[in-house]
Design a protein that fits this description.
By secondary structure, the protein is mainly alpha-helical. Helices cover 54% and strands 7% of the residues. The longest helix has 16 residues, at 26-41.
């Protein structure tokens, strides 16, 4: 992996073998547009990467585990798991 120190490479290989990487597809894009419109209309816009994260959770019907309640609680009907 590019940028990974040799002693960390094995850790990251094992880590990514155990997680599912969710795709950014049309459904995620549609949710991102919807979330952006909702947040803009209430003047509570958040950063684009956070919108993409929330949109991915919505598109896949998954709760979002986060430490960043401040941003994600602004999104209507987003299931959040506080960690």
């Amino acid at each position: 992996m590019v940028g990974t120190k040799t002693d960390q490479e094995e850790f990251w290989k094992k880590f990514f073998d155990k997680v599912t990487i969710l795709p950014f597809n049309k459904s995620v894009n549609d949710w991102a547009v919807s979330i952006t419109k909702q947040l803009k209309s209430s003047n509570k816009l958040i950063e684009v990467p956070d919108i993409f994260i929330a949109a991915t959770a919505k598109a896949h019907n998954l709760p979002l585990a986060t430490l960043n309640l401040k941003h994600f609680e602004r999104i209507k009907d987003l299931a959040i798991v506080q960690i």
